Amino acid sequence: MTFQPRDMNTTTSARSISILHYPQRGRDGLSCWIAQPERLNPALPPLVAIHGLHRGARAQANLLATEAIATGRTVIAPLFSEERWPRFQQVVRRDRADLALISLLADLRLAGLCEGATIDLAGYSAGAQFAHRFAMLYPHLISRLHVTAAGWYTFPDSAPFPYGIGPGDAPRESWAGRLNSGLDAFAALPIRVHVGVRDTIVDEHTRSGPEIDAQQGRSRLDRARNWVAAIKAQAEARGIQPDISLNVIDGCGHDFTSCVRIGGLDRLLCAPA
C-alpha cells in the first residue's frame, strides 16, 4: 500500500515536524492526524492520543507536536467521527471502536508510519474512558497508559461492564470473561492518571446518579483518586506490584489546551518512561 501524506502544517525549530492527515479507509476505517518528527527515537513507541467528545484530534496532534520533536516520538491522533462512532468511549458497544483502532494501527504500520508492536496510549475526557477500557481488553498492545480527566471509569469490581468487570445483562454483551482474563496484565502496566485540580464541576457530560456516585465519587477529581486506589488495591491483592500514579495538575480544570499550556501535560505524555 502506498500512502502519500497530506502535509497540513510544518513548524520549524532545531528539528522540523509535519502534521500529516491520514484519510479514512472504507466505512469502518478511522482517519487520523500524525505528528512525526524528522528524526525518530527508535526506542520510543508511538503515542496514540484519543480525543474527547469534541473530537479535537487535529488540535491534540498540534498541541503535542513540540514534545514530539523534543523526544523523537510519533504522535497519532485518531478521529472517531460522531456520525460513525457516537459512543466510541465505551469501546466495544455497537460499532466496535476497539477494532477500528487496531485496524488503523495495522494500516499505519504497513504505510511505515507506526513502528513496533506496542503503543503508548493516552486519552483525554471521553478519550480517557476509551483508553483505559481498550487497555483492559488489550494490555499486551500497551507499553504505557495515560488517562486524563475521564468522566467515569470501569472499576475492577463486580459491577456490570462498563461500570465494572462483571457480567452484563445481555449475554452477547458480556465482556466479563475477557476483562477478568486480562486483569493481571492490565494491573501490571505503567499507568499515569492526570486530572486538573479544578476539574470538580459535575456537568452534563459527567455520568451521575446514586449508584455511580457511590461507586466512583462525584467529580472527575474524586473519581480519578478512587480509581487509582482501586487499581492499586486490585494489583496488590493479586500479588502484583502496581505501577500506577495520580498527577493532579495545578491551575487547570477540564480543558486539554490549558492542561498542556499551563500544566505541561504534553511533556508528561511524550516523555520517555
List the helices and strands in order.
EEEEHEHEHEHHEHHEHH
What's the total number of strands? 9
What is the CA-based Rg, rounded? 18 Å
Low-confidence stretches: 1-14
Short overview:
The chain is an alpha/beta fold and 273 residues long. It has nine helices and nine strands. The chain starts with 5 loop residues before the first strand and ends with a helix.
Structural notes for this entry:
- It is a single chain.
- With 273 residues, the chain is an alpha/beta fold.
- The chain is built from nine helices and nine strands.
- It has a nine-stranded mixed sheet.
- Residues 1-14 have low confidence and may be disordered.
Give keywords.
single chain; 273 residues; alpha/beta; nine-stranded mixed beta sheet; disordered N terminus
Topology:
Elements: E1 6-11, E2 17-22, E3 31-37, E4 47-50, H1 57-71, E5 75-79, H2 97-110, E6 119-124, H3 126-137, E7 142-148, H4 176-181, H5 183-187, E8 190-196, H6 210-216, H7 220-237, E9 243-249, H8 256-261, H9 265-270
Parallel strand pairs: 4-5, 4-6, 6-7, 7-8, 8-9
Antiparallel strand pairs: 1-2, 2-3, 3-5
